[in-house]
Design a protein that fits this description.
This protein is of the alpha/beta class. 43% of the residues lie in helices and 15% in strands. It has 28 helices and 18 strands. The strands form three sheets. The protein has a seven-stranded mixed sheet with strand order 7-6-8-9-11-10-16, sandwiched between helices. Strands 12-13-15-14-17-18 form a six-stranded mixed sheet, with helices on both faces. A five-stranded parallel sheet has the order 1-2-3-5-4, sandwiched between helices. Strand 12 and strand 13 form a beta hairpin. The radius of gyration is 28 Å and the shape is globular.
């Protein structure tokens, strides 16, 4: 039977679910059937749109149990990372939206306040939910509200430092809080048997805690014998627990622990969650799940269990898109070529080895690659240490995630003038994953870092060239940024002026169009359209956008109007930096900068969003023609307008 047939023939229970209350009324047998229907539904829907299928197949029973025990939205359910919340969306009345998952007008791939009252935090960046949960629990305690806070932490989020900072504070505060550790990356075996069940119940019995406190107080007040005797008794108790549940490290933090439980057994998870809910303090429920559970193609995918594929064949799990050369592939291949020549080059990534291309280097030189987990701050400072030790680290992360390590890049790397190269994949507007994943901040945010150089290649040839140039820098950090998707066709330069590539020029020098990175092709289209109106356009690719090349300022001085177009936020972006450099050089040519407004832009395709923002060839050509013709109609006094005149 096909997945589509299975969905059509066995969707009776799922079709009746309009909210969590419907799940609460089901029998154990019905829950098993519902779990199977949810998996069929996920595979059928996500195979058409792409999305995070593997993580969600692994949390079906876990999410069912949560919604049976807790009363969302009064009780707050927080998902970390947010890409494992698809089942939660299904159970909270959003089934219809899955036809357009991650598409314009459809559901977000992450929790979204705009979609449902059942979503509170839009936490698609990992390792944050426990800090949110700590604050929520404190707020409810202070306000006297009896509401449960539940944080589901999984898919590697516990490798992030924020989790452990939060756990330390959660233990100290002692407020009611349930932490569900969705353990889908380790081979722990669930602890089973009567003794284990008894110990779990005992540890979560408030009366047991009172007895312990009484004994501790009594023995602690007995000279010589009391404290040592209490420590011996406590050690015996801990020894018994450690023999049964080796994950007692959580209790060393001062947080009660129950588990491991089979995360695919609804009654088992439900029992653990009810005990945790009734305990009255912070409790960790350790649920062992299997990523991609119930779908053989995902279970057999060794790389990432179909973590976040594009559209795929529901029967085989194979991607439907025709293979093409991606920006990431070009980077990965060139990095290996450089590593062949330079034994000092090493790679670092933050739980993104395959998506960023670092895995290619790891396969050839496994001892020269370090995956630090979801810990971008540590990655940056560890890279600083590697550089201090005589190596040249290449840190490959998504552009959106380097924002988390700004302080480390600024003070741990740049202040020490260390040769670390940060390679930012998914730079610019990335589309389906929404605002938290757009890599639009890096050129603005990191542009203020002294001594840091930023390169934005336009095609595969310049990516290879600029990567080599970046790794050749030995007196400070560098950033190389490029978008997602298929790499653009090579666009050769007419000539090079310093580091600046001139891509097109005409006899007339009306407009200098500065096209940053992947917008080079757009710049060429704009030049052709503006030329039809009788104006001459020089199109340049700065290649290295920070610091602003002096040659770019000189080129600007020879034109009547300068227009910049970039796939990053306008505030503090390349256009802003060029205008400042022109003012400093007393170049009084008017500047107009086009880029992404600093806002939260909804998910959709990259083309849709760029069209919304007016960053298409037609839009830009119309703007440029209007600006230059306006100069003809009403010449601007350079003493009053100058380089400071920005749009």
């Amino acid at each position: 039977m096909s997945v589509e047939e299975g969905t059509a023939n066995h969707g009776r229970l799922l079709g009746a679910v309009r909210g969590p209350q419907d799940v609460k009324r089901m029998t154990a047998e019905q829950l098993d059937i519902l779990a199977a229907e949810i998996r069929d539904f996920l595979i059928a829907k996500v195979s058409r749109t792409g999305g995070h299928v593997g993580p969600n197949l692994g949390v079906v029973e876990l999410t069912l149990a949560m919604h049976r025990v807790f009363d969302s939205p009064r009780d707050r359910l927080l998902f970390d990372t947010g890409h494992q919340a698809y089942v939660h969306k299904i159970l909270t009345g959003r089934q219809e939206g899955f036809d357009k998952l991650r598409q314009r007008g459809g559901l977000s791939g992450y929790p979204s306040q705009a979609e449902s009252e059942h979503d509170l935090i839009e936490n698609s960046h990992a390792s944050t939910a426990l800090s949110y949960a700590d604050g929520l629990a404190k707020a409810y305690a202070l306000r006297g509200e009896k509401r449960s806070v539940v944080a589901v932490v999984g898919d590697g989020a516990l490798t992030g430092g924020m989790c452990w900072e939060a756990l330390n504070n959660i233990a100290t505060a002692g407020n009611p809080l349930v932490i569900v550790v969705n353990d889908n990356g380790r081979s722990y075996s669930p602890t089973i048997g009567g003794l284990a069940d008894h110990l779990s119940s005992l540890r979560l019995n408030p009366g047991y805690e009172k007895v312990l406190d009484t004994v501790k107080d009594a023995l602690g007040n007995t000279p010589f014998v009391g404290k040592p005797m209490y420590e011996v008794l406590h050690a015996v108790k801990k020894g018994i627990k450690d023999a049964v549940a080796p994950q007692a490290m959580f209790e060393d933090l001062g947080i009660k622990y129950v588990g491991p439980v089979d995360g695919h057994d609804v009654p088992a998870v439900e029992a653990a969650l009810r005990a945790a809910k009734n305990f009255g303090g912070p409790v960790i429920v350790h649920a062992v799940t299997r990523k991609g559970y119930g779908y053989r193609p995902a279970e057999d995918d060794e790389a990432d269990c179909l973590h976040g594929p594009g559209a795929f064949d529901a029967e085989t799990g194979k991607l439907l898109a025709v293979p093409s050369v991606k920006w990431t592939n070009v980077f990965a291949d060139e990095l290996v070529a450089i590593a062949d020549e330079r034994p000092d080059v090493v790679g670092i990534t933050a739980a993104m080895a395959e998506p960023t291309g670092i895995a290619t280097l790891a396969r050839k030189y496994p001892k020269r690659v370090y995956d630090v987990g979801i810990a971008e701050q540590h990655a940056a400072t560890s890279a600083a240490g590697l550089a201090m030790g005589g190596l040249h680290p290449v840190v490959a992360v998504y552009a959106t995630f380097l924002n988390r390590a700004f302080d480390q890049v600024l003070l741990d790397v740049a202040m020490h003038k260390l040769p670390v190269t940060f390679v930012l994949d998914r730079a610019g507007i990335t589309g389906p994953d929404g605002p938290s994943h757009y890599g639009i901040w890096d050129m603005s945010v990191f542009g203020v870092v002294p001594g840091l150089r930023i390169a934005a290649p336009r095609d595969s040839a310049t990516l290879r060239e600029e990567l080599r140039e970046a790794i050749a820098v030995d007196d400070g950090p560098t950033i190389l940024r490029f978008p997602t998707g298929t790499v653009a066709a090579d666009l050769p330069a007419v000539r090079r002026v310093g580091p600046v590539d001139v891509l097109a020029e005409s006899a007339r020098t009306d407009v200098l169009l500065v096209a940053v990175g992947s917008f080079a092709g757009l710049g060429m289209e704009v030049a052709a359209r503006v030329a039809e109106q009788g104006y001459g356009v020089t199109v340049v690719d700065p290649r290295w956008v920070r610091p602003v090349p002096a040659e770019l300022v000189e080129l600007a001085a020879g034109h009547r109007l300068v227009v910049t177009v970039e796939d990053g936020v306008r505030i503090g972006g390349v256009g802003s930096a060029l205008a400042q450099a022109m003012r400093d050089a007393d170049v009084r040519v008017p500047v107009r900068d086009l880029g992404v407004p600093a806002d939260w832009h909804p998910h959709g395709t990259r083309a849709q969003i760029l069209s919304d923002l007016g960053l298409t060839a037609q839009d830009v050509a119309r703007d440029v023609t209007g600006w230059i013709s306006g100069l003809d109609a009403a010449p601007v006094d350079p003493a009053t307008d100058g380089a400071a005149a920005q749009n």
